[in-house]
Structure formats: structure tokens, C-alpha cells
Amino acid sequence: MYQLHSLEQSLKQFFGYDKFREGQKEIIEQALQNRDLLIIMPTGGGKSLCFQLPALLKSGITIVISPLIALMQDQVDTLTDNGIGATFINSTLEPEEIYRRESAILNNKIKLLYLAPERLMSERFTSFLDNLINQVGVSAFAIDEAHCISEWGHDFRPEYRRIKELRQRYPQIPISALTATATKRVQHDIITQLQLREPAIHISSFNRPNLYYEVREKNRHSYNQLLKEIRLEKGAGIIYCMSRKSVDNLALRLQNDGIKALPYHAGLSDQERINNQNSFIRDDIQVMVATVAFGMGINKPDVRFVFHYDLPKNIESYYQESGRAGRDSEPSKCVVFFSLSDVSKINFIISQKENQDEQRIAKQQLEKIIEYSEGTECRRKIQLSYFGERFKGNCANCDNCLNPLITEDWTTEAKKFLSCVARVNQRFGMMHIIDILRGAKNQKIEKNGHHLLSTYGIGKDKSIDQWKNLSRALLHQGLMNETTDGYRILKLNKLSWEVFRDERSVIIPIKKQDIKQILGEYNERQAEAALLLDRLKQLRKYIADANNIAPYVVFQDNTLNLFALLRPQNIKEFSEISGVNSHKASQYGDIFVSEIRAFCQQQELPIALPSDSQMVTLQFYQQGLNIAEIAEKRGLTMGTIAYHLSELILMNQPVNINDFVSETKQKEILKMINKLGDYSLKTLRENLGEDYSYDELKLVRAWRQKQNR
Ligand code: ADP
Ligand code: ZN
User: Fold this and answer.
1) Class of domain 407-519
2) Which of 27, 40, 49, 50 should be mutated for ligand 1, with most atoms under 8 A from CB?
């Protein structure tokens, strides 16, 4: 069947995309030839398509083994919303529901079945599988997160070991194994454990070009920076902290500053964790403040930023954690807040470890992450080198490449600093040394008689920050040491003496101006697109809540961006946009196009006016038709008509709320809005109950917003 169309045509037909990403086409061709495959791509690389498209083109059903229940639900939602027959079976379902799904599968209604590994090989399931193979046929097994099979991976799951029984029992069915974990050891394990036969192996680059990397000094201004950044970002983000306590504190502080943030860590109950995670996925909140317990199996493609408010454990985990940003390939931001005092905290924890080997490894990993944080080279290059990948040149998307450092010779100042360390008998920390150099007057100095030292006040010409910068560079370059007992006392070493003896010069980096800010231009078209994007996001959220799915299941950010930039004016233009297939066009085309047209009309006219489509709805309303009747007449859904009416209300058109919602209900809804705010219709509905429809909520909300203007 697949020869009739080119693979590109099928890609557009089923998924709405125009082009394959690197590697995808070749993989799909090999899958269609029934080869075994090992596919290694970074998060967001587009692995799923590599088994989903072949599943649709081959006869029979493809069985996907996936370890994470939340992820299963998500993939099935996304496929179903594209009009593709997909379902899952796992322990969250009642036996009757499982039975119902199994019948649908045997009736050939399904192309992709997602399955938890623990279900495999139960007697009941194998007999079902035998039936399935006889009646419908199984085109392939796809093993997602295949690294879970290896004890050397970061997420070993014993139940994955049973997958090899599939190969033994059904040797004729091809297997695709997929993972984002790169080490050779794990790759080898996957191949042998699954008994793959001459697999075609695909390893993509681990570079994530859309991620911007930055490291910032963590200081007392950091919280304000963070807050400003979050307000500016608008999109969703994750902030990682080291401990449960700091998660709770930061989440609370952000909430108090008006950010929709929630905490996530192992100390919360299962239910709280699930609720908070769902609020994040559904865009009911903007920010998840979390320990590293959060993120595995979160498929949210539109995470716009990942901040590490505390230092990550090592480079590998930093790559995974920051990698949760921008799976949809849109520009996203990854920032580490780095402080030397975090380093000494971690150092102290490490020094408490009993096992010498563990201690050594932890030390090494810490050193690498410090190297990354203090490095002046391209951040991308440093990260990729851990995966044995070479990245050359300027990436133009990290702080170091955008603001190249200039260096200066600070040998004279270094000598002043080091000799001051010597004069206080190597018994004080950085701030005290700087105070002496700058001639500060304080108790500590006077009590120790340090105002009498020859180095007192010889460094007044440099600011505190400049001295700090030097001190850090001396530590980083190994020209001076610091104790790791938590006191951070400065000590001289062999190299310090080389500096004294003029055998070594001290070159330190000085930050240059932010080039990105100078280049960052702002034009009117972009500003308008941003306005429209905001409205389209609201519309998407409304549709998602009404259908009880995540907003990105409706359309992903990159597709919305294209809507905002290209402004499709009719269904045909709409369906041509990447991310829209015919199913989505018929489901959502009208409502989005009318929103876009409304926006365009308003841009041309000083006052907001209804779009043509909204005007037609208004006319029917004025003839006395109710929502169901207008929908029927116009061949649109009731949801679309209700949306038109609520927009008409906002635009001061003659639409009366009493025609749609009873006064008692209006009162109840208003009470609830006053209590909970009006940003989430879903939350309102959950609290009001099933008697209240989304349409009613939407209309009353618009009514209230109009009164408040
Ligand atoms: P992975 O499983 O490798 O982390 P996914 O399969 O979830 O990645 O894909 C990441 C994102 O890229 C998804 O939002 C997906 O819809 C999108 N995507 C995949 N292939 C393409 C393509 N050819 N064109 C555009 N977007 C794509
Ligand atoms: Zn770079």
C-alpha cells in the first residue's frame, strides 16, 4: 500500500508535517523492510515517528512497549487527536475496559497498541497475542526507552528483561529499540538482551541547536533575576533545586510574587504529585519548581525554560534535565545559577562519603560541572564532548559564544591579593581579604589588627566585584586553594609562589557587553504576531480544557507560531501549515481561522469588531436561535458558536448572557470566579460540577470581563 504514495505524502497526511527530520526517512524505509533497528536520538529528536509511521503503512498492528504510564496516555492522546487508531493497556484500567480495548484491537480498529512491560508474557496476554497475530497480524514490536533493559543505564527496570521472550516466542516479528541514552555499554546491552538480528543502527547528533545555554553567578540578586525572567518568558518552565526544602521555599516565594508555580518532590503524596504534574502539563500553572525527581516521562514538548537554581549533579544529568526544554525544537532557554558556596556545600557532602571510590567519582563529576560552569568556551562544545562528540566553532546560542570574554593581565593585582592571604596567615576567606585590600573599616579588621597590615587599602582602585572575579579566577586556575570544610579559607599553594616569583603571569577573563541585547531588534510585525499568539494560546487552552486533553495535543507551539506569523485566512491555507493534517483541519480549522480573521480585522480598525463568521452567528442569534440551532444551521460545533458568542460579548455586541445561562447559575459561577480567579475554566468546572458546561463558564467569564472594563 505504501508504494502508492511517497513517504512525504504520508507524513503530511497522518501527522501534518512537511519534511522528515534527519535520519527519520532512512529509518522508516528500513522499518518497512522489516529490519531490526536500534535508534539513538536525543530527547525531542523525533523518535516516535520512526515507529508510528511504519505502523500506519504496514498491515497489522504495532505493539509499543513503554515503561511510563503517563507517557503512554500522552502519546495515545496525541495520536487519537490526529485521527489515528491508538490505545493502551496498563494497570490503571479496569478489567472490563481492558476487555473492551482488546475487542477493538481484534476488530482491526487500532494501529498502535501501547503496553506496559509487566503485562507481557502473562498467560492471559500471550493467548491474546497469539489470537492477535493470527487474526490481525503484528507488524512490529517497538521498545521505547530501551535503555531500561540495561543495568548500566540510568533507569534499569527488571521487567524489561522479559521483553526478550517476545523475540523467542515470535522470532518472525521485527523489533525496533529506541533510546536517548548514548553510552556504548548500554547500546551493546540493548542489542544482546533483545537478541536483535543485524540491526540497522542509527545514532543522531546529541546537539540540541534550539537550546540556549547560559551560566549565571548566583548571588543575592538571583531571585529577582529569576522572577523577571519568568515574567518575560510567558511559556512554561521547570526550576530545579537541590533539596525538598528549597523547592518548597522557592515555590512559595514565586506564588507570593504572583507566578503560577507548584512544587514537586518525593516528599509530597502520590496524589499531590500527580495533580501538580497534570496542572503543569495542562498549562494551568506556568512553573514547576522541582527536585530532579521530576521530569522522567514528561512528554511536554513546549517547556520553554529549564533553570537550575542549584548546581546540577554532573554533566550527564544536566544534559538530561536541561534537555526537557524545547522538545518541539522551538527556541528555549537553559540556565544554571552557579555559586562557589554551592560547590563547597557539595564538596562537604562528598567528603562525608565512606566509600573511597564513590568519593573519588563524585569529586570528579563535581569538577567537571565546575569546569562547565566556569568555562569560557562554548557550553555546547563542553557538553557534547562528554558524549564523545566534537562540536567546532561558535554555536551562536550560548552565553560564551554570544558574549565572548576578553582577558586581561592581572598579575600585579594577583600579587597584591596573594600576599594579603599570606599576611593574614592563611586563616581567612575571600571577603575578608577583599575588605582589607579595599581599606574597609569594620570590627573584624580592627579586632585582628588587619588595618595595620602593609596590604591594607592598597586595592581601593578596584571594585569588590572586580576583586571577587580575580579571586575566583585564581581558584579556578589552581593558583590558590580553598578549604572544603565549609569555611572556605584561602590557602596558598606551589603555583601561588610561582606568581610571587614572577615565574607566572595571571590572565583573567572579564565579561564583555551582551551582544544579544544589542542585536535583539524588535519590529512591529513580530509584536503583532506575539499579540495574536497570545490569543491563539487562549483559544487552544479553552479547547483543550473542554476536551480534557493537554493544550499541546491540540496544536504544538511551533504550529501556533506559524498561525500567528502566516495568518491563514481560510481552511485551505490553514491545512497547508506544518502540524495540521486533514483531521485537525476539519476539527479545529473553523474556530482558529475565525479567531485569526477576527484579529486581522481588529488590527486594521481601531475598535474591536466581529469577524464575518462571528457576524453570521450574531445574525442567527438575533433571529432567536439558540446555540444548538445555530450550530446545526452553520454546520459548526456548539463549542465554536459559544466561542463566537463570548467573543461578541467581549466586543460589546448586543448579546445577552441571560439568553444562555440562568441567573442562579450565573451567580454560582461568579462566586466561584471570585474565589478561584478566571484563568482556568477546567478548575472552575471541577469545583462547580458537571451541571455547568464549558460553554456556560466561557460566556459568563466574558460577560464579567466586559463589566469590569
Ligand atoms: P523523542 O521521542 O525523540 O523525544 P518525539 O518523538 O516526542 O521525540 O518528537 C519530538 C517532537 O518533534 C514532537 O513534538 C514531534 O511531534 C515533533 N516531530 C517529530 N518529527 C517531526 C517532523 N518530521 N517534522 C516536524 N516535527 C516533528
Ligand atoms: Zn556556544
Assistant:
1) mainly alpha
2) 49
Q: Which cell is 604 given?
A: 486594521
The yes/no answer on whether domain 211-361 falls in CATH 3.40.50.10490 is no
Per-domain boundaries in the chain: 4-203, 211-361, 407-519, 524-602, 612-707
Indicate whether this model's pTM tops 0.70: no
Instruction: Specify the pLDDT at position 654.
Output: 85
What span, in angstroms and rounded, lies between the C-alpha atoms of 556 and 300?
Answer: 10
Q: Tell the residue nearest (CA) to atom 23 of ligand 1.
A: 20
- Using a 6 Å cutoff on CB, does residue 48 contact ligand 1? yes
The 3-class SS string of 87-150 reads EEECCCCCHHHHHHHHHHHHCCCCCEEEECHHHCCCHHHHHHHHHHHHHCCEEEEEECCHHHHC
Looking at the CA of 379, name the nearest ligand: 2
Q: Cβ–Cβ contacts within 10 Å for residue 235, how many? A: 18
Give tens-digit pLDDT for 113-162.
999 888 887 888 889 999 999 999 999 999 999 999 987 766 788 888 88
The response to whether residue 540 sits with its C-beta less than 6 Å from ligand 1 reads no
Architecture of 524-602 per CATH? Orthogonal Bundle (1.10)
Tell me which residue of 116, 79, 552 sits closest to 301, measured CA to CA.
Answer: 552
24 CA: nearest ligand 1 atom: 23
Residues β-bridged to residue 238 = 288, 306
Query: How much is the pLDDT for 3?
Result: 52
The three grid cell numbers given for residue 342, joined into one nine-digit string: 554551592
Does ligand 1 lie within 6 Å of residue 273's CB atom? no
